[in-house]
Design a protein that fits this description.
With about 130 residues, the protein is an alpha+beta fold. The protein has one domain. Helix content is about 60%, strand content about 15%. A two-stranded antiparallel sheet has the order 1-2. Helix 1 (about 10-50) runs antiparallel to helix 4 (about 105-125). The protein is rod-shaped, with a radius of gyration of 23 Å. The two termini are about 40 Å apart.
């Protein structure tokens, strides 16, 4: 009579291996979604940025700050124009008195990207 039973150690090892494979796939999908969201934030800011010469809108970039096997951190920033970004987003006082109204173009892009990122991660986890 053949003994076809699986030992608990073998079962646990097989389950752990399957979970690790799933975690690796989920991490890769999450990284793709984060990169896509970062790019969409940059593009949306460039499209909605106040423009005089266009240099401000062109100054926006996505930079990878940190990446590990299971996570990634990106920064969307204005190269050499971060002070201008704050003034244009929130408004500022004029030299001769009065105020220049701000034009929200960073915060809406960020909110849209958060929503997009959540949807992308949910979709990738549901589709496996």
């Amino acid at each position: 009579m053949a003994n076809n039973s699986i030992r608990p150690e073998q079962l646990a090892s097989a389950v752990m291996e399957g979970l690790k494979e799933y975690a690796d796939l989920a991490a890769d999908d999450m990284k793709k979604a984060v990169r896509k969201a970062g790019t969409s934030v940059r593009k949306e800011i460039q499209q909605n940025a106040p423009s005089d010469t266009g240099a401000y809108a062109k100054s926006w970039a996505v930079k990878k700050e940190k990446e590990t096997s299971d996570s990634i951190q990106l920064i969307v920033h204005s190269k050499n124009r971060y002070q201008l970004a704050h003034l244009l987003e929130h408004g500022h006082a004029k030299r001769g008195g009065g105020r220049v109204a701000g034009k929200a173009h960073i915060a809406p892009a960020e909110e849209n990207a958060v929503r997009q990122l959540e949807e992308e991660i949910e979709r990738s986890l549901q589709n496996g």
